[in-house]
Amino acid sequence: MRPPPDPQARRRATHGRGLSAEALALLALMLKGYRPLARRFAASGGEIDLIVRRGRTIAFVEVKARATLEAAAIAIDGRKRARMSRAARAWLARHRLPADAILRADAVFVAPRRWPLHLPNAFEI
Q: CA-to-CA distance for 105 and 17, rounded, in angstroms?
């Protein structure tokens, strides 16, 4: 019989997988011409995994890693979107942007042995 899993070890492993997924997502976005502005920005009770820019577009990116791309897409619920929106507003309050900046909330879904799927305008900020 196996001993019960250590909750802290499981949390560390999950955190490590999340960091790896974010790094892979950032690589995929950079190959598309995006430039990173921030990683793991936290404020106002929310967090944004990546904030990237390409031209006039600023994208607030949620990265989800799951066993399948479909499971990753389902993992972004209304509560997560609301928390991300609060954090995005906090980031915007701290940074001056050009008047013609285009703001988006994107998602990147990561699954094993698959290239990350970038979904622009995944939800409203």
A: 22
CA distance 31 to 69: 20
CA-closest candidate to residue 61, choices 109, 18, 15: 109
> Which CATH number applies to 7-123?
3.40.1350.10
Q: Where are the domains of the chain?
A: 7-123
SS3 category, 52: strand
Q: Characterize the bridge pairing of strands 102-110 and 57-65.
A: parallel
CA–CA distance, 117 with 93 (Å, rounded to integer): 29
Spell out the per-residue pLDDT of the chain, length 125, in tens: 566 678 887 777 777 777 899 999 999 999 999 999 999 999 978 899 999 999 999 999 999 999 998 899 888 999 999 999 999 999 999 999 999 999 999 999 999 999 999 999 998 88
